[in-house]
Amino acid sequence: MKSLLQRALVYVLALSVLGLSSPVVVEAQIIGTLAAVEAQQRDKDLATVNGALAREEVRQKMTEMGVDAQQLDARIAAMTDSELRSLATDIESMPAGGDALAVIGIVFLVLLILEAVGVIDIFKKFP
Amino acid sequence: MTPDDPPMLYRFIPFLFLALAGCVSHGPALNAIDRSLPERVELTETPFFPQEDYQCGPAALATVLRASGVDTTSEALVPEVYLPGRQGSLQTELIASTRTHGRLPYLLAPGIEDIAAELAAGRPVLVLQNLLLRSLPQWHYAVVVGYDRDEEQVILRSGTTQRLVMSTRKFQKTWALADRWALLPLQPGDAPARPDLDRYMAAAAGLEATGRVDAATASYTRAQSLWPQAALPWLGLANLAYARGDFPVAENAYVAAIERDPTNAAARNNLAETLARRGCVNDAKREIVRALEFAQGTSLEKDVMATATRLQGLRDEGTCPAS
């Protein structure tokens, strides 16, 4: 004779099996225009990093780089997934346009070194 | 060789510089560009924002955004584009901020002729320059506001200089070292002087992807009239219609996109979704098979596979209205 417990167990198992085999409702998702444009423009360079992951990484790096928490969301929201991915990997090295005046300093430094090692001799008029 | 002569090695230094300067061509002189462009242009009305320390990014961006009709200033843009940890601004952030202000961030083709054409159309152009060396870069943003063919000169708003006159040669060199990056903020619906479909659609799709629906709609509509035979503007408008739930409009626009480019896997995938949504499962399955065929080996393959798998689980209920 089967106990009530055994019968209940059979029911639960049957329900769970049915639940598994029933069609899983997946939200229909169309392909975005940008994904289509990018697919045409570069056939290689396939995205390896997940967009949401990249977003989180950029958020963290930009915080470390001193971006105000209040501005962070708006700045990141205006970027596309592929832009976030390239920032996530290259934010430390990609061009950051800054000060033109610093050039003068670097050129001066290079001249000073060349002078010190005797390659050039342009500062001789100064004591 | 007298003792006063410098060592042999140093005699070669001038030649080394000549080799560096002379062997590399950085692009044509202004004299060589399209004759139909004016002799000289200078957009004297372009605003000027003298930059604070390291902040040529906000200053240059404010200059071109103001010229395109956005009411902003250099200081207002600092919190949007300045990255303290890099003591500068990234190109990506200038593009993103252009979107935030409702402008289409069009990246010009890498030629001085394209800049000249924009100036002739009355639009200043933001450029990235590398003022030093490829191995030791000094990145700087400036705004080109004019050129003079006779003098071989380019006129810039740069740093703290309101009117910096630079030889074409030096400009070409510093610009080439920054991969000839040039940003033109356009009012949505406006077209650049020398429109390029891929560049225009990439910029417009970026607006759509970041939720600037009105600006994207205006840009796709303009692209449609600029390139009547192109599929992508139709795809863009179809996706916008789908996103707002206007499925009949979306379906027609997907069909129009596929008529223009039968190999467009994204349009076929999205048409399949739209068909399935109104009960035409068999039509949808037919469509997704074609989509799979054209998506193979592209970055869309995974997405199309996902749609195909989902459609596989659906059964045709015979609810598709006869066409």
From TrEMBL, chain A:
Chain ranges passing through the membrane: 100-123
Keywords per UniProt: Membrane, Transmembrane, Transmembrane helix
Protein name: PA2779 family protein
Automatic annotation (TrEMBL), chain B:
Transmembrane segments: none
Limits of the Peptidase C39-like domain: 46-156
Keyword Secreted (UniProt): no
Domain of life: Bacteria
TPR repeats: 231-264
Classification via InterPro entries: Peptidase_C39-like (IPR039564), Peptidase_C39_single_dom (IPR039563), TPR-like_helical_dom_sf (IPR011990), TPR_rpt (IPR019734)
The protein, known as: Tetratricopeptide (TPR) repeat protein
Organism: Povalibacter uvarum
